[in-house]
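pasting for the record
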Amino acid sequence: MNVPEIFDQPGAAFVLLPAGSKFPPIEKAWQEKPHTFTEAVAHKGNVGVLAGNGYIGLDQDDPKAFHELGLPATTTWETRPGRVGMWFMAGGDLAEALESIGKKPDLAQIKLFKDGQAVGEVKLSRSYQVIPPSWKEVDGQRVDYRLLAAVPPARISLKWLLQELQKVGISFSSRLEQNASKLECMAREARQSRTDPNSHRARRY
């Protein structure tokens, strides 16, 4: 398979997929069986580049939502007409960056939302991005993944990326999750009010 040489970077690891498929990989426990670039090239099906080991990915399922996002030039490809994948080297403390947005330090990916709609993901670990020259069927038609920028992955800080995403209105939880969080907070405050001896309700008696 003619995997673009730009993906032949130090420490880069790959997952092997059936031809025309995004999931599942051909091996069980694929997270524990990373493949080399040479093995990816020899594979006759689709290929994904693994997140982790110093790399993170950004999938833009709705590029309009990211229009004002200023990112350095990096490895970029089209996953289908109107959708884009980007690959970066990760600098900084990922766990600290995740903590800054209230997420668990071992999160595999961050789902991205704008105006309550899902618009993409940030791939961190135990996840992958399907890369050229893979293909898939969309509405009965074959669609090929296509390299847009053969640029080595730029080094960025995850914390910086998350801050920049927030500046253009991207959030890291859906409206449903946000509403659930608000309801949970209200319920917690109500419980505290009932048990707090210094509460206004307690003073009335």
